Amino acid sequence: MVRWLPNQRWSLVILALILGNQLYCIGNAQTQSRIDSISPFGSVGSVDSFGSTTNTRSDQDLVPGWPYVFDSSGFHFYSLVPPKVLEQQIQGVLRLPEELNQELGIAFRGLDVHILVFDSRRSLDEYLHRYYPGLRAANSMYIRDQGPGLILTWFHADWLVDVRHEATHALLHAKRASIPLWIDEGLAEYFEYPSGSSSGDSFAIKSHPVHTKLIHTQLRFGQFANLEEQERWDPNKRLSNQQYRDAWGSVAFLLNHSDQSKNEFRFYVKDLLENRASGNLSYRLQQTIPDWRTAYTRYYREHSVASSIR
Ligand SMILES: [Zn+2]
């Protein structure tokens, strides 16, 4: 994660338009296509804030009109793409809170997430240029603030995957808790694909089209995701491809290795989201998984068949 402090001119521009004055962002090194940002700007809850067709603000000419504005299950879409085109994929977004609930045992209903859908990379770039100068172009971006989460994306082939990644961040951070980077990114990667969507079998969510193969390669070289090392990751540094792989690997392992590991992970995340003193998960796991390396490598070797399905 890289802390990004806009210079004074940028601050003034953002402050004037959306009351923002500070951001920091995380780039997904895997695809270089995502940015997760945090911004303490004021409310973005009204349609006018995004430049609706009814916007009468003086900066109206700086924001796109949104021909399609629609809400469903706490997700508010402001789109340049017709809902008919998005219809099928939106179902994969709307299911996300329930999927998180099932895996983590935590309710995420009633949380507002705002999603801006641009019709091209160019229109997103132009918006960024106006409102977030200095932020590099990306396929999707998550901006966290004191209010509802905000996702910016353009409609592309992997739109659903990217939006689910960012929406997972948005739902987790809507709880206003501090979440270790490896859990934040690990869960976002874990929930990118709708459960059972690609292979139809129960292992679908346990594998990832990129990370699972990389983990098997990693294991052949005797390497593995080191949980204690992940817990020391600097939240201000951008993750490498290998770190995204390891974040996903640890989360997928903990949620699927055994009932005990799943419960330990769920309790830990719940403590984090409810702002209870949580310490390090590696310390809590000493009883459940006394030898992380052996358990981790054995788990992924045993799941090599299932994971090759997708
Ligand atoms: Zn992310």
Summarize the structure in short.
The chain has 310 residues and is α/β, with parallel strands linked by helices. 43% of the residues lie in helices and 13% in strands. An 8-stranded mixed β-sheet has the order 1-2-3-7-8-6-5-4.
Structure description:
By secondary structure, the protein is of the alpha/beta class. The protein folds into 2 domains: 2-176, 3-Layer(aba) Sandwich (Glutaredoxin), CATH 3.40.30; 204-307, no CATH class. It has helices at 8-18, 83-94, 96-104, 121-131, 159-173, 181-190, 211-220, 227-230, 241-256, 259-273, 281-284, 292-302, 304-307; strands spanning 2-4, 23-27, 34-38, 68-72, 75-79, 113-118, 140-144, 149-154. Strands 1-2-3-7-8-6-5-4 form an 8-stranded mixed sheet. The longest helix is centred in the last third of the chain and has 16 residues, at 241-256. The structure holds zinc ion.
List keywords for this structure.
310 residues, alpha/beta, Glutaredoxin, 2 domains, eight-stranded mixed β-sheet, globular, disordered N terminus, disordered C terminus, binds zinc ion
Structural class: alpha/beta
Cofactors, ions, other ligands = zinc ion
State Rg. 20 Å
Question: What's the order of the H and E elements?
Answer: EHEEEEHHEHEEHHHHHHHHH
In CATH terms, what is the architecture of the largest domain?
Answer: 3-Layer(aba) Sandwich
Largest sheet: 8 strands, mixed
How many domains? Answer: 2
Order the strands across the largest sheet as they lie in space: 1-2-3-7-8-6-5-4
Q: What name is given to the CATH topology of the largest domain?
A: Glutaredoxin
Low-confidence stretches: 1-32, 38-62, 198-204, 305-310
Mean pLDDT: 78
